[in-house]
Amino acid sequence: MKGWQGVAGMCLVSVVALTACSSSETEVAEGEGGEKADLKSGQTELRVAWWGSQARHDRTIEAIKLFEAENPDIAITTEFTGWDGYWERMSTQAAGRNLPDVIQMDLQYINEYVSRDLLVDLTPYVEDGTLDFSDVDDIYLEGGIVNEGLYGINLGSNAMSIAYDAEIFAEAGVPELEPGYTWDDYIEAVKTIHENLDGMYAYGFGDSLNFFKHYLRQHDLWLYNEDNTGLGYDDDKYLIDFLNMYKDLLDSGVAAPPDVKAEVQGIQDELIVHGRASTFSPHSNQIVALNEAAGRKLQMTTLPAMEGGSEASFIKPSLLFSATSQGDKSEEAARFINFFVNSIEANEILNAERGVPISEKVRDHLYDHVSENTQLQFDYVQLVEQRAAPIHPPDPAGTGQILDLYARMIEEFEYELLSAEEFAERFRGEVEIILSN
């Protein structure tokens, strides 16, 4: 791994951000499950917990069996569920000092868990070679760094994207969106498609706090201030201008109104899947499920650029593995995580379901073995890697409440119950209350 000690400093001085939110990654909620390890004499039990779909459960269990075969001194107890209920379960186990030894972690919560001394800094295991990142670029590790410590290991990279239907663009006589296109280019393109194709919808970026964070990054700003006590921008004009761009799409009928959006209950319902929208904004690892639902090949491009603004794209961990501090098995946990990062055989089983592997040799090996849809996400992450800015520091505790707040307020804005100015003022006040608590 190149420049390890420099990664932490780069992340800490970065004042620009977008957040990760795996609840938006269309995880399928499954019932709780798992299997207790059948311990033999001399074996160490390692408890591992994750959330995800049934496909993820099945692949992870198969990879775990391979790990046990190659590491006969360790037996794995598995604990898994869907996204719903996972964090409540982790909180309950933390309160009882009974956390699993390895837990699947999300950027939305890593800062909170570190601040409560629930995670182990894995830096010593990088230094002694237990965690081998010699084949991993620094950019793929940044998301797991908190206060100069390495508390989460990226299990699969992704990046925000704009998915688009090339056939719809061609039918409307509109050029496809090439990386580097601007906000104005996007708005002009989707408005023209809307006019030429009988009211075709497009992705309305204003209902996503992630997109506002992208907009802030382009102004060299971050959503939160350095000590996480308030917003990181002093002038509400940034949010007002962003919301007014969104209102332009709403007023022109290009962005789907709230009653239409309410029809979408999962990725299989997305308007682009059913040919009712020209664009959508998935994380890159969602393109596989999106194209499978659509039954056709949708393309991906970068998010809009700002003329004269800073680069805002970044690589983020879709998910991480963290070792918890409530047991004494951090060395075994590091061995387990290293296996998921570097084992080609394990990654053949896992099949990039969590995102693009961070090991270059694993990526290169898998590319010719995965589906064309999965190759799309590999290609897109490589595209973003070439232009990416450093990821932001992890979001503060209370991020989930702030996401919920923004979603509630955006609905009021869409129904014209709030102006952009009223939204910005109220959002600032309520965010400060959440962070103060």
TrEMBL record:
Q: Which PROSITE patterns does this chain map to?
A: PROKAR_LIPOPROTEIN
The family database entries (Gene3D superfamilies) matched by this protein are listed as: Periplasmic binding protein-like II
Query: What is an example of a Pfam family matching this protein?
Result: SBP_bac_1
Recorded hits in InterPro entries, A to Z, give: Bact_solute-bd_prot1 (IPR050490), SBP (IPR006059)
Output the PANTHER family linked to this UniProt entry.
Answer: ABC TRANSPORTER SUBSTRATE-BINDING PROTEIN YESO-RELATED, ARABINOSE-BINDING PROTEIN-RELATED
Q: What is this protein called?
A: Extracellular solute-binding protein
